[in-house]
Amino acid sequence: MKKYNVVGKSVPRIDAWAKATGAAKYVGDMQRPDMLHAKILHSPLAHAWIRRIDVSRAAALPGVRAVITYMDVPQIPFTTCGHPYPFDTPKDSLILSRHLRYVGDPVAAVAADTQEIALDALELIEVEYEELPAYFTIDAALAEGAVELHEGLKNLAGESEFEIGDVEGAMAQADFIIEDTVETPIVTHSPIEPHVSLVELDEQGRLVCYFSTQVPSIMRERLAYALGMRMGQIRVVKGHVGGGFGGKQEPIFEPINAVLTMKTGKPVRLELTREECLACTRTRHSARIHMRTGLTRDGKMLARIMDIDQNTGAYSSHGHNVVFAIAMAFATLYPTPNLRFHGRSVYTNIPIAGAMRAYGCPQYAFAMESHVEHMARELGIDSLEFRRKNSYHLGDPINFPHVSVSTCGLQDAIDQCEEAIGYQAFLKEPRSDGTSKRGIGTALFSYGQSCYPHSVELSGARVRVNEDATATLYIGCAEIGQGTDTVMLQIAAEASGIPLADINLVAVDTDSCPFDPGAYASRQTYVAGHAVKKAAAACKEQILRYAVNKLSVNYERLDAADGWIIDRDTDQRMVSLKEITMQMYYDCHTPVTICQEESFAPTDNMLTFGVSMAIVKVDTATGKVEVEKLVTAIDSGRIINPQLAMGQLNGGNIMSLGYGLSEQLLIDPKSGRVLNDNLLDYKVPTFADVPPIEGYFIETDEPSSAYGNKSLGEPPNIAPAVAVRNAVLDATGVAINQGPLTPERVYLALKAAKEQEV
Amino acid sequence: MKKYNVVGKSVPRIDAWAKATGAAKYVGDMQRPDMLHAKILHSPLAHAWIRRIDVSRAAALPGVRAVITYMDVPQIPFTTCGHPYPFDTPKDSLILSRHLRYVGDPVAAVAADTQEIALDALELIEVEYEELPAYFTIDAALAEGAVELHEGLKNLAGESEFEIGDVEGAMAQADFIIEDTVETPIVTHSPIEPHVSLVELDEQGRLVCYFSTQVPSIMRERLAYALGMRMGQIRVVKGHVGGGFGGKQEPIFEPINAVLTMKTGKPVRLELTREECLACTRTRHSARIHMRTGLTRDGKMLARIMDIDQNTGAYSSHGHNVVFAIAMAFATLYPTPNLRFHGRSVYTNIPIAGAMRAYGCPQYAFAMESHVEHMARELGIDSLEFRRKNSYHLGDPINFPHVSVSTCGLQDAIDQCEEAIGYQAFLKEPRSDGTSKRGIGTALFSYGQSCYPHSVELSGARVRVNEDATATLYIGCAEIGQGTDTVMLQIAAEASGIPLADINLVAVDTDSCPFDPGAYASRQTYVAGHAVKKAAAACKEQILRYAVNKLSVNYERLDAADGWIIDRDTDQRMVSLKEITMQMYYDCHTPVTICQEESFAPTDNMLTFGVSMAIVKVDTATGKVEVEKLVTAIDSGRIINPQLAMGQLNGGNIMSLGYGLSEQLLIDPKSGRVLNDNLLDYKVPTFADVPPIEGYFIETDEPSSAYGNKSLGEPPNIAPAVAVRNAVLDATGVAINQGPLTPERVYLALKAAKEQEV
User: Fold this and answer.
1) Tens-digit pLDDT profile for residues B111-135
2) Is the CB of residue B467 less than 8 Å away from at least one CB of chain A?
3) Domains plus CATH for chain B?
4) How far is A459 from chain B (nearest CA, A)?
5) Each residue of A632-677: pLDDT tens digit?
6) How many CB atoms lie within 10 A of CB B154?
7) ipTM of model
8) Chain B contact set for A18 (CB, 8 A)
9) CA–CA separation, B9 and B5 (whole Å)
């Protein structure tokens, strides 16, 4: 592959110094002298109408500046999920509503001089509720005669199906038909930084919103929509973000904060507690997935059927869009000529499920890779061999519209993992030492590059070169901890020939940055990276074309690198960029500014591929699963910054281990209340829980991307959970089709299996 | 003339609400919790070396955070005058120097927790000076054997001359030769808001500079140069500016503030006192101007000679560039086939003269229009008739490079003034009532549109249209109270078809705004206005071209106005802009951002023309001159915003009355110290001093500009002073060739004239 000067290097994060020293300002760090603090009164009931609400005592409390209810906000129904506009996501949300649909739905909000006063005021709000029937499971919500959460929608936020080929015919010809049903848990994003916002008015009376968000542009558009305002009246500024993972991908309570600011005229800060973050923001859907696959005797998949019902909670949010992503994964990773898919997103009176890292694929993979393991075992074929036989090879047909593959390192990734984890050697090792059993498990994954063509998918980028050949890069895409800002600067430096240290970044302020829908779909390096490359390359061209006359050489002979104009023929430095750019501005007869704004929109969706393998030790006495080693190999195309990429790989893998082993948001089946809304009872892996993880990048050179790159942020979050589940199966012979594999669940499954044997 | 929707209307200033309510934040209003306060120790001597300086006692004072001297700053010689780079303005300045050249030159600076501590610390700095010979007048500085203020420059900051035609030949043929020498005073800008800056470091360690400045881009470039930094490391943000008038057109002590910030790591605020503003910032040059004109018997000018020496003070600043502007005015307003010009800018040990409203033309006009009056009287021709005969008529040749005239309302302006002030009637009125005498006086003026081609002359503008057809306009040109921001929005609204209320403005932050050298030369509406029009029109075109397919009509039939796409054939609204722009962003297959950045650079210099006439009453007992009426008519092309334009006319006229009647910075001829560094002794006109002023715009339609406009900000500041001087001559018969016409000077002149008679 071609070598680059900046791309492919592990340059340090540009925010490293600021974050390490504490100089970095998060939204929570922002202070204003006259700032108010907001608190929200949440519904104690899973489904109710507000019969009467009286805020007069709360409003009279000294230090309280505003109390708002549904009567004080625009009653404009909207969807919080901004990017798929104008697609058919139900407009089922209000900023504050009289109709409460889960324990946590906001009833009222207070802005006061201190947090303490605001909390006291909440207790003075008098509410009479009229309780309504509540449903917490898919089956209850879809049962005949169930009350509708949202009028006219029959408790379905969405339903999709497609069929390719002749599924029934193929099933009839199959030598084997394997069937599985798998259930996945509700989990939460749990970023270290809670949801926090600071909203104030500028001197023109415009709303200035400091948000911890993944989607600044979308937040502005949605806020304007919900508030019935013009977008020009709203400015959204993204602070540093202490993790998003999909949970900060839509407005949640930020519109409430905006209303309080307009009501009081003062800056208002709204920081959710950890309890609110866990119980009242967004979750990853729980899903029940039924699969049926017909195979030939020699283990080739002929036909596959998948039925998925996901519990989307009280409001649609990203709900049914997640099912689209699942459909894509279902259709592509294991090319099968005959496919049928059916998916539903079901409203219930539990917390709202939305976008979460890998957008449905962790659920899908947990089911599918369990199912694949089942098939291999049933047919008596080695699990790796079975996957090699059925998974995608370059040139295989793609059974899904708007997806194409021109690079695929999947088979190399399987080889790499097999080698790195010592698969063949492990197969020969003793597996049991009496109290514990060891096993090895595998899972494959694939993932797209963007939302094309199902949502707005467009990134702008602007590069301005200063008089002295330093430059500024303007992007609308969102650094949320993953390292985008650094990667975008690398691309700008590579494409412009200006040293990275000479390029300053402006991101993200909707007042000064180009449009970009934001950080999701692992889209940014692919989509925004392209726009950055175009803008930077256009600036370089502008400078080189100006230099042609000054240097009396052909344009074709000129290039720029590291701050110099280079002679392509001799690789010699000819003149510094600075000397030329200063002339461009100060040329008294034909001066020109050096600035280019470009946008990019994909016209296809590529696939990233990979595999995770895990070795586990299961304590059969306690059910505790210990991951001894986890190996992941991924074809994310060319890696722009290896160190940052490895951070994504490790982080995604660890998060998936939490999904597979310990995390589950528990809902009280009586009240609908979240039972474990704290990080003691909701168990996110800590560093003490992290096993040895090895990561490998199988670098391909994707021709459709800026520098050969493909998606990277979400894919590592897909497979480890199910690789571990498969390893537990390998160790114990017991197939556990419901996650997470907590000690309790494993213990009970082993016990049940033993009882069945007896 | 064509009618427009927004251009030509007196829309309210966009900052009106914020300024009227006090919401508008000036730099002086900005506070930081850990902010330090800076104070400067100024030289007590007019010319000296620092033999020894000891800051240890000051540095040890509790609360003092930094003390700096010339030893702590880069010793990179630079010119504070940024825009004419790379022309030959002497690089004669340092941030802090060991060589002190006027009373007020900075010796050292302190940053401390409070202003009081900083002032106390100044007193603890021990300095031993070695005094050097000091010169306060042009003649003393140019005398044989005078010590050089700046090595090798012979006390000349610049010298220029040109000759057109055959001056000596023409003089030999002249029927009359009239000669005059006129002297003009030193005056100061005296904006209400003093010079103030707040400099802090951002989390990347970049310098963020909040300046009250007319030239944000130039400040960044000059600061980087003087500090030896890359421009990308510096961000300049302009606050609201409470008046500039040319005095905030270059770095003065801001680089000192930047050094203190880098030294302490904390935000540092530096606000000059009124005394410092008057004595240590910038002034308008005093000048001695000698003129000699040869005329035919019937009053036609054949040849003119002008010799000008201006006292530029201790450093060059804009010094000699002012002489260029004088040369242009000299050559163009009275077309004369034979011209000779010679100008010098002379270094002396007095405060630094720089740019001030109308950049040399008030000095020039005070001389030339006195001289013209002298000629008319000498030849016995009515003053208005004489001016009509000799001044510019459309089609007359232009004796100056890069100047051209395609519109000229000068003769109409003279007619308008003659009518409005009742010239013919006044000539018949009784002039004297015993103790007072009345007279009428006239002065013409002309002015360019920009600095083309003598300086950087380039403006960028960017327009971004949001998803909902609201928009943002980004400009680098500087609102300093004159109303530019409002005018630029009017132009953007007119050219884009988006309502003005839907366009938000981002200005001026060098991190987010396009390049623009700033507010001077009355250039902004002409130069930046053009860039704004181009960018806005390009956005409109982009939208209309997209709409062609949606509406199935030819592009030529479409236009946009007031938020709608209009059918040009029927003037009917077809579809809202919002409907189209939302589709442009959310089109899933070919989405596009709507954003255009354009720049404009003039390729010629047009002329604005006008005339002021004044009626005065002179109290012959006291010398007090009372202006009874002042009328100004100006051809500034088409007026974009009549109310704002009238504000410029009135403000400029009042400022010129101060120049003509009361303002003069007095320098102690012994010490070089400013004697009247306060607004009690330095007499700026107050509202009580303002006479009835009538203003008229003779609207022409300048084809080279965005909407027919020509320069407006400075021209009204040129003529009233000398119109009043000529009126005093008319009233009393006494020609006073030195300004200002204070009661003392008039009284003495009348007395001297009387004694001569006797």
Assistant:
1) 999 999 999 999 999 999 999 999 9
2) yes
3) 16-23+458-499+513-600 (3.30.365.10), 31-132+192-243+248-280 (3.90.1170.50), 358-450+604-757 (3.30.365.10)
4) 8
5) 999 999 999 999 999 999 999 999 999 999 999 999 999 999 999 9
6) 14
7) 0.95
8) 203-204
9) 8
